[in-house]
Amino acid sequence: MTSKRMDHYLESLLVEEQFDLYRAISRFADEELADQLLAWERNKMLVPDDVIEKLGEMGVFGLPIPESYGGQGGGLTDLLLAGLALSYQSQSVAITAGAAVSLGATPVFLFGTEKQKSEHLPDLASGKRIFAFGLSEPGRGSDAANPEVVAEQVGEGFVIRGEKCWITNAAWASHIVVHALTDANGRNGHRSSCFIIPRDREGVHYQEMEGKTVWPLSSTGSIVFDSVEATSDEILGELHEGFYVMATALNGGRLFVAALALGSLAFALDKVRGYVQQRDQFGGPIGRFQRVQDVVFEMDLVLERNLTWMIELGKRYDQKTLEREQAAKLKIDTSRAASRLLQDAMEVCGGVSALDEFGLARHAADLFVTRVGEGSNRALMTQAVRPLLPDIADQLQ
Predict the structure, then answer these.
(1) What is the 3-state composition of the chain as percent helix, strand, coil, each rounded to the nearest 5?
(2) Does 5-127 carry CATH code 1.10.540.10?
């Protein structure tokens, strides 16, 4: 394969320490994951435990967590770089680490009590423990502010009932952060709370979801809470402020999803660049045809533009100046453009693209998740357009 085009752009966008971090994780993905992915997928395996252990040893799970809690003391930008490096080979592996941080460890760091941080963050930062976020439900997706899972206050504690689904990392989760309704009569956005619930607690029933055709190596589970008892000490954040906890976690998560899409696009660009210079038809390489060149050019254009955009928004997130609409815009644009261009890339390469060993089909399928994960693009568009139409913002649907 030709040299990575993504490396060319990142080297000029990053300080030396960050670029070295990206290159180290990229080498791990290229040398220890790439040759095994196909066998794992064909055998319908999840990410092997030893891969998760190695990611932990490399410090990936603790990248944005302060050193005082066992982390690496970096920021979200460092996690985005890990996402780029891993998703170049496999979004499944990348999201395993990314969700563990952005939806697991980060909410604890941002909203946990000192006791919760001290108890959980060192193990979360090392990868010895993984938290999963229970948000989606069989009857709730985009309408996340109004969960059907209920946490009823009983005496000094709560009883949680209902089902969460599409939970990333459910198979490895030691705890589930459950987003549940706690005040049905509260004003919008102030009706729910988040609870940290051990997965082995009585009444918690986990099942891996079957039949998934995207992110095949990633665990995606369904969890039923059958009258699960919880204490007030297990609330993450403030009572009835669970939507704020969730929305804050998703803000950084949307940047990470954009990184997944860009990793897939970068892989496809390099694959196509190599293929069209080697594939001879009609007396020469197909890369000499302008219609083929147009696809290569546009892939490169989107990669450079959106890498630059993503790194800038990562800095703003770390500086606490990122607006929620900015994260949504990047995620929408990147996932849509990458998905469209992956289809163009497969057309350029022809029938060989249908073979799983060629790699493009894996990335084209996984890009679907980037369009609906961390908030469906269709729903996020309404959120992102509100600042543009302030006089009728309360009427937008």
Answers:
(1) 60, 15, 25
(2) yes
